[in-house]
Amino acid sequence: MRIALTSPYCWPQRRRGSERLLHDLSHWFAARGHDVTVIATAPGERRVEADGPVRRILLPQRGPLGLDLRALNFFHRFAFQVEGEIAADPPDAVLALNYHDAWGVLRARRRGARTRLVYQAVGIPVRRYFRRIPLDGWMFRQVLRGAEEVLTISRFAGDLLASEFGRDSRLLHAPTDLAPLLAAPKPPPDGTLRLLFAADLNEPRKGALLLARAFARVAAARPGARLDYSGHADAAIQAAIRAAVPQDLVPAITFHGVGAVGDLPALYARATVFVLPAIWEAQGMVLVEALAAGTPVVACDHGGVGDIVDDPAIGRLCPPGPIRGHAATDDAALAEAILAAADLAAQPGTDAACRARAAAFGLDRLGPIYEACLAGEGAAQSGLRSDGVI
Question: Can you give the residue ranges of every domain in the chain?
Answer without folding.
Answer: 2-175+362-375, 179-359
